[in-house]
Design a protein that fits this description.
By secondary structure, the chain is α+β, with helices and mostly antiparallel strands. The protein has two helices and ten strands; from the N terminus they run H-E-E-E-H-E-E-E-E-E-E-E. It has a single domain, classed as Lipocalin, CATH 2.40.128.280. The protein has an eight-stranded antiparallel beta barrel with strand order 1-4-5-6-7-8-9-10. The relative contact order is 0.18.
């Protein structure tokens, strides 16, 4: 019986250490400047107006430049686009690697002011990080739209 308990605890410890290492590698890969090249809505043929991240129109986020600083988990992005205010937005971020062994990461993202103090209280965003390499990154979030799942896909290049 003691051997079984020891084996279970050992496996749990190894899995938890492994997922942290993978999340740290992902955090290091995200470090630097990225450009949000496209926002798509897979499986949806409707012409919809989507707002993201505190009501910023998706068309204003396409082409925006993002900076992730991995040593303190802060960042910023500059909103761009035709008829869009050119503003710098700030955020804090982290990667939840709970399911990293299965290749699933969640990016936790919280808007802040320039001093990295929250502007939304205790609310933020949890976005699935579906692809991350040294030069490309993809985020996906599924929300409900008219009672049906609606997927938002954001593609970045470094």
């Amino acid at each position: 019986m003691k051997k079984i308990v020891f084996l279970i605890l050992s496996v749990a410890f190894l899995v938890s250490c492994g997922s942290g290492k993978v999340a740290n590698e992902a955090r290091a890969t995200m470090n630097g400047d990225w450009q949000l090249t496209s926002i798509t809505y897979p499986g949806n043929s409707q012409n919809v107006q989507v707002s993201l991240l505190n009501d910023i129109p998706a068309r204003c986020l396409e082409g925006s430049t993002w900076n992730f600083i991995s040593n303190n988990n802060t960042g910023s992005y500059v909103v761009s686009g035709l008829n869009c205010p050119s503003e710098t937005e700030f955020f804090i971020w982290s990667i939840d690697g709970t399911n990293a062994a299965m290749g699933n990461y969640d990016l936790m993202f919280k808007p802040t002011n320039s001093d990295h103090k929250s502007v939304t209280g205790n609310t933020g965003y949890r976005i699935n990080l579906t692809h991350l390499s040294g030069s490309q990154m993809t985020w996906e979030q599924t929300v409900s739209f008219e009672g049906k799942p609606f997927t938002i896909k954001m593609n970045f290049n470094k």
